[in-house]
Design goal:
The two termini are 13 Å apart. This protein is mainly alpha-helical.
C-alpha cells in the first residue's frame, strides 16, 4: 500500500504542484492587475479573509513542492513555503502600487502570511496524520 507521504513526495505530484502554483500565481496577478474589483461588502475585513484564503491555497501548493517524510514536511520546507508565499504577497502589493485605483496595504501582506501559514499547517497536518 502506498502511504500518503510517499504519494505526496512522488515526482509527478510535485510537478503538478509546481504547475498549479504557477497557474495560481497567474490568477492572483490578474486579479491584482484589475483597477478595482467591485465586490459587495458583506462584513468588515472580508478582503483580508479573501487574501488569507487564496494565500492558504498558495502556501499549500508551495509546500507540496517538497518531499514529506512519515512525520509530515520538514520544518525547513514549511518555513521556505511560508517565506515564498509572503514574498509573493509583497511583490503582489508592490505590483498594485502601479495599478490605477489600487494601493499596497501592509495588512494585506499580513493576511497573506497568516493564510499561507494556515494552508501550510493544514497540508502538513493532513500528510502527517494520514501517514501514520
Amino acid at each position: 500500500m502506498l502511504s500518503l507521504h510517499r504519494l505526496a513526495g512522488h515526482p509527478a505530484v510535485r510537478l503538478l504542484s509546481l504547475v498549479l502554483a504557477l497557474v495560481w500565481m497567474g490568477v492572483l496577478y490578474l486579479l491584482s492587475d484589475q483597477p478595482a474589483i467591485d465586490a459587495p461588502m458583506l462584513f468588515p475585513g472580508q478582503d483580508k479573509l479573501f487574501h488569507a484564503i487564496v494565500y492558504a491555497v498558495l502556501g499549500g501548493l508551495y509546500l507540496a513542492l517538497f518531499r514529506p517524510g512519515p512525520a509530515g514536511y520538514a520544518a525547513q520546507a514549511r518555513w521556505l513555503a511560508l517565506g515564498l508565499a509572503v514574498l509573493y504577497g509583497i511583490s503582489d502589493e508592490w505590483h498594485q502600487s502601479f495599478v490605477p485605483g489600487r494601493e499596497p496595504d501592509v495588512l494585506d501582506v499580513l493576511a497573506d502570511g497568516v493564510g499561507a501559514a494556515v494552508g501550510i499547517l493544514l497540508l502538513h497536518g493532513l500528510v502527517k496524520r494520514l501517514s501514520t
